[in-house]
Write a structure and sequence with these properties.
The protein has 144 residues and is an alpha+beta fold. It has 2 helices and 9 strands.
Length: 144
């Protein structure tokens, strides 16, 4: 009786482990299919905030942008988030030296922020709950 119980328990543990492994592999395949990181050598001009003075992103869940060129200085983030859902917006430099949480907001508005160093940055938008959102980033003032 104890040997059969042990055998059934081992089979169940193995089955649960295999199911967890299979789900992890399936999730990884889904992620790989949906997110293909940008090759910085192939970035077009529309990905450079310097050339257009503005860049915008929309989504309905967590989002990490491709990287884009930003100069040190002042910027304005305009956001359109759901009224009842907090959304966090962060900027990271590609080289890992800069990180700034620009906003943790809900509703509609704008917030100013500045970057200390020029370089390639990417943006992470993290809503507490999946829902439609939109952001636009603009350089404040004229470029020299």
């Amino acid at each position: 009786m104890d040997l059969s119980f042990l055998l059934v328990a081992l089979i169940l543990v193995g089955l649960v482990g295999y199911m967890a492994y299979a789900k992890t592999k399936r999730d990884q395949r889904t992620f790989d299919r949906l997110y293909k990181p940008a090759n910085t050598d192939d970035l077009s001009d529309e990905q450079d905030l310097l050339k257009n003075n503005t860049i915008a992103f929309t989504g309905n869940s967590d989002f990490v942008s491709q990287n884009f060129l930003m100069t040190a200085g002042a910027y304005k983030l305009m956001y359109w988030f759901p009224e009842s859902i907090q959304v966090q917006v962060e900027f990271f430099s590609i080289d890992g030296t800069e990180h700034e949480v620009v906003a943790i907001k809900s509703g509609e508005g704008e917030v100013g922020f500045s970057l200390k160093a020029s370089g390639r940055y990417f943006c992470k938008v993290d809503p507490v709950k999946d829902d439609q959102w939109e952001i636009e980033i603009r350089r404040v003032g004229r470029q020299a």
